[in-house]
Structures are given as C-alpha cells and as structure tokens.
Design a protein that fits this description.
This protein has 162 residues and is of the alpha+beta class. The chain contains 4 helices and 9 strands.
C-alpha cells in the first residue's frame, strides 16, 4: 500500500465523518413538521411508558421477537400508541420472520416518512402522520401487491380487534 493510498483512505473516512451528520440533518422532516397531535416532551413522557417513549419520541428500536403484536393474527386495526391514529389494517399484515410486526401497506394518509441515515446509509423511516411518532422503517422486500415491508415496532402501536 502506498503513502498516497493511505492518505486517500484517510481523506475518504474524514469526508464521510463530515457528510453523515449533514445528511442526517437533511432527513429531519418529521421533527420540523407541525403535527395535528402535539404535546410537550414532559406530556409525552407522562402519556407513554418509558419503552414507548424511547421508540415513538426518540426513534429507538425494540428487540426483535419481543412484541406480542408480531404474532397478532386477529382481524382488526393497528393504532398509533401515541395518539390513537389508525395506521394499518390486519388485512395487510404478514409474517416477515424478522421479529417485528410487518405490513405491505398502511391505511391511506396514516403515515409519513423521512430519510434516516443513522446506520450510515439511507433508509425510509416511517412515522405517524398525526403525531410524528417513530413507527419503524419501510423496505423493498415485501410481498405482493406492493413489494413493500413496513417493519414496525410493536411498542409504537396498539391493536383494536374488529
């Protein structure tokens, strides 16, 4: 390895270190937008469990296979645990074998998205359209008819049977 190759590698890593925080800031549409349901941080902490708060308000991810909603098979509707917004119909739920509740389509107007660079590459983060709560991410490896997999945190949702 030459001196120039080592220098180029170092400059590339330095550039990535500068670019990633800038790119992450570009994906902050959910935080900057005003939502129909809005509470102070103290009120969110009062309304949610600590685990729900970590997922919905701090964009944390629950452990895979930890949510009972992953195995939920009844007919009904999945709601935002933060505000009660109807997010997904049980008709669009499928077993992705990833350990998180997965759906191939949200209800119309139920969710929004932003670009998330937290892992160093772009992902589409999904949030509640009404309160901005972090729900999970969407990937292009789902079933027909959409080919999408909305991989959601069970802590971010509640289930209402039909």
């Amino acid at each position: 390895m030459t001196h120039q190759t080592t220098r180029r590698s170092a400059l590339a890593w330095f550039g990535a270190g500068i670019a990633l925080p800038v790119l992450a800031a570009c994906g902050s549409e959910a935080q900057a937008k005003t939502f129909r349901v809005s509470y102070s941080d103290a009120e969110w902490k009062r309304r949610l469990t600590p685990a729900q708060y970590a997922v919905l308000r701090q964009e944390d991810t629950e452990r895979p296979f930890s949510s009972p909603l992953d195995k939920e098979k009844r007919k009904g509707t999945f709601l935002c645990a933060g505000c009660g917004n109807e997010l997904f119909s049980s008709d669009t739920k499928f077993d992705s074998r990833t350990g998180w509740p997965s759906f191939y389509r949200p209800l119309p107007g139920a969710v929004g998205s932003k670009t998330d660079y937290k892992l160093g590459y772009p992902r589409r983060e999904i949030h509640c359209a009404d309160c901005g709560g972090h729900l999970g991410h969407v990937f292009n490896d789902g079933p027909r008819p959409t080919g999408l997999r909305y991989c959601m945190n069970g802590l971010a949702m509640k289930f209402r049977p039909a």
